[in-house]
Amino acid sequence: MADFDSLPYRPCAGIMLANENGQIFVGRRIDNPGSEAWQMPQGGIDDGETADDAAIRELQEETGIAPALVDVIARTKEEYYYDLPPELIGKLWQGRWRGQRQYWFLMRFRGNDADINIKTRHPEFSAWKWSEPDMVPKLIVPFKRHLYERVIAEFLDLI
């Protein structure tokens, strides 16, 4: 059995995208067909890239939303961490990471729904929707739920 505790956390940026009605964008993961695994846009921070730049890049890569259509409202005060469940460690990210460490960004979407296109070059979502903030954690895979609750609590007054 591998010593997963010695693996590092993958640096990541996450985006809580809020519309003018205070609803949050969630996408259904394309890599888990038949499931109802939803999440907010997020992705790895490339070498030499800041978390801020990664957040804008990931938002565009996953939703097709042009950077000019969002305002960055806030960034989490600290990084949030989560561990993968034991059955996924070693299977995701070529086994290099035990989970993720994430800075989260609250962004206000100033476009309209037609500006969202999840059929990107490398799609990550099979569907998307706007959700009330209190419903978002209920849509998320259980191992990320507590992290999502903490991010929502931190940003709730700003949504």
From TrEMBL:
NCBIfam families: PRK00714.1-5 (NF001938). Keywords: Hydrolase. The keyword Hydrolase applies. Residues 8-153 form the Nudix hydrolase domain. Its cofactor is a divalent metal cation; Mn(2+); Mg(2+). It comes from the Bacteria. This is RNA pyrophosphohydrolase. SUPFAM superfamilies: Nudix. It comes from Sphingorhabdus arenilitoris. Accelerates the degradation of transcripts by removing pyrophosphate from the 5'-end of triphosphorylated RNA, leading to a more labile monophosphorylated state that can stimulate subsequent ribonuclease cleavage. Its EC number is 3.6.1.-. It is an enzyme of class 3 (hydrolase). PANTHER family: NUDIX HYDROLASE 26, CHLOROPLASTIC, UDP/ADP-SUGAR PYROPHOSPHATASE. Belongs to the Nudix hydrolase family. RppH subfamily. InterPro entries: Nudix_hydrolase (IPR020476), NUDIX_hydrolase-like_dom_sf (IPR015797), NUDIX_hydrolase_CS (IPR020084), NUDIX_hydrolase_dom (IPR000086), RppH (IPR022927). A motif (Nudix box) lies at residues 43-64. The keyword Hydrolase applies. GO terms for molecular function: hydrolase activity.
